[in-house]
């Protein structure tokens, strides 16, 4: 496994936390769901040693106070749903003072980070019957975590403990977490642009339909007029057209509209081209658990 490397989330062009809300929009709006598809999400269980490692990084190694670990960022983006047992919570609480003393970390600081980290986790105890299956393994202390992963049908366990694999569990690599973080960032950009693009098209079509309906209604209204009224209407339009000031006013409006359209099209195509480039650069590829 490679080193557990975390990066500063401020370098993201869009906050990945926005993906959490975008998921709900895509999930609940069928046209968007059909257009964008499912956004990857993984159910995981976390072990004590992994949490301790993240807390050490958060309190001692990170360069920026806004930076988060891969796991935190993926939880906030909704890419990870992370569970743990009550046993793991108790173990972390018991070890905080020892870890702080060993690494020269302020106990108040590490407790503060742990409080924030803990708020992102979903605490659940596994069934005793499932836990009993793992109690005779090489490390019975890992039994509840393994049992919870099985009970939830989790994709894997966030742990550095080699006993997890030896007892039939599946540990998640740091590389996977880094890939999931990158996926979250790219998905945030891609989904944001796709939703915005789709609604722009929808609004444009509605405006066109509205204009078309308006023209049709005017035409229908004219068609319903008696012949004498139609003659008067045409005569009025012709008289107005032949008046120099009115004619000049109409031509000025038409010329301005043409000018705006001509000036806008290059800009529109340039923006569309930039969007296409951004979408290609940020095409999210869901990470795969090996």
Describe the structure.
The protein has 290 residues and is mainly α. The chain has two domains: 9-184, Rossmann fold (3-Layer(aba) Sandwich); 193-281. It is built from twelve helices and four strands, in the order ααβααβααβααβαααα. It has helices at 18-28, 30-36, 48-61, 70-77, 86-103, 107-118, 128-132, 143-152, 162-166, 174-223, 227-242, 244-281; strands at 42-46, 80-84, 122-123, 156-158. It has a four-stranded parallel β-sheet. The model is unreliable at 1-5 and 200-208 (pLDDT under 50).
Task: Throw out a few tags for this protein.
elongated, four-stranded parallel β-sheet, 2 domains, disordered N terminus, 67% helix
Give me the secondary-structure topology.
Layout: H1 18-28, H2 30-36, E1 42-46, H3 48-61, H4 70-77, E2 80-84, H5 86-103, H6 107-118, E3 122-123, H7 128-132, H8 143-152, E4 156-158, H9 162-166, H10 174-223, H11 227-242, H12 244-281
Parallel strand pairs: 1-2, 1-4, 2-3
Helix pairs in contact: 1-2, 1-10, 3-5, 3-6, 4-10, 5-6, 10-12
Tell me the number of structural domains: 2
Low-confidence stretches: 1-5, 200-208
Briefly, what CATH class of the largest domain?
Alpha Beta
Number of helical elements:
12
**Class based on secondary structure composition and strand pairing:** mainly alpha
> What is the chains' assembly state?
single chain
Q: Please give the share of residues in helix.
A: 55-70%
**Biggest sheet descriptor:** 4 strands, parallel
Strand order of the largest sheet: 3-2-1-4
Radius of gyration: 31 Å
Q: What is the strand tally?
A: 4
What amount of the residues lies in strands?
5-15%
- Per CATH, the superfamily of the largest domain is 5'-nuclease
The H-and-E topology, N to C, reads as HHEHHEHHEHHEHHHH
CATH architecture group name of the largest domain? 3-Layer(aba) Sandwich
Shape: elongated
Mean pLDDT: 79
CATH fold topology of the largest domain: Rossmann fold
Q: Gap between N and C termini, in Å?
A: 12 Å
């Amino acid at each position: 496994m490679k080193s557990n490397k975390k990066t500063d989330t401020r370098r993201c062009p869009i906050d990945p936390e926005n993906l959490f809300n975008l998921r709900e929009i895509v999930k609940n709006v069928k046209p968007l769901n059909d257009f964008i598809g499912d956004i990857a999400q993984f159910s995981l269980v976390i072990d004590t040693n992994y949490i301790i490692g993240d807390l050490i990084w958060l309190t001692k190694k990170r360069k920026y106070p806004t930076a988060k670990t891969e796991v935190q960022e993926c939880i906030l983006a909704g890419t990870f749903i992370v569970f743990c047992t009550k046993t793991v919570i108790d173990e972390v609480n018991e070890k905080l003072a020892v870890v702080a003393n060993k690494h020269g970390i302020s106990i108040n600081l590490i407790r503060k980070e742990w409080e924030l980290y803990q708020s992102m986790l979903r605490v659940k105890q596994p069934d005793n019957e499932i836990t009993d299956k793992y109690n005779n393994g090489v490390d019975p202390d890992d039994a509840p975590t393994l049992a919870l992963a099985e009970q939830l049908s989790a994709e894997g366990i966030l742990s550095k403990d080699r006993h997890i694999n030896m007892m039939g569990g599946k540990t998640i690599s740091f590389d996977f977490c880094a890939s999931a973080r990158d996926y979250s960032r790219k998905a945030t950009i891609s989904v944001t642009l796709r939703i915005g693009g789709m609604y722009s098209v929808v609004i444009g079509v509605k405006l066109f339909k509205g204009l078309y309906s308006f023209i049709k209604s005017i035409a229908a209204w004219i068609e319903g007029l008696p012949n004498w009224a139609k003659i008067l209407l045409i005569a009025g339009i012709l008289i107005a057209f032949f008046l120099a000031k009115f004619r000049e006013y109409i031509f000025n409006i038409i010329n301005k509209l043409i000018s705006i359209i001509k000036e806008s099209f290059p800009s529109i195509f340039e923006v569309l081209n930039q969007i296409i480039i951004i979408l290609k650069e940020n095409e999210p590829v869901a990470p795969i658990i090996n």
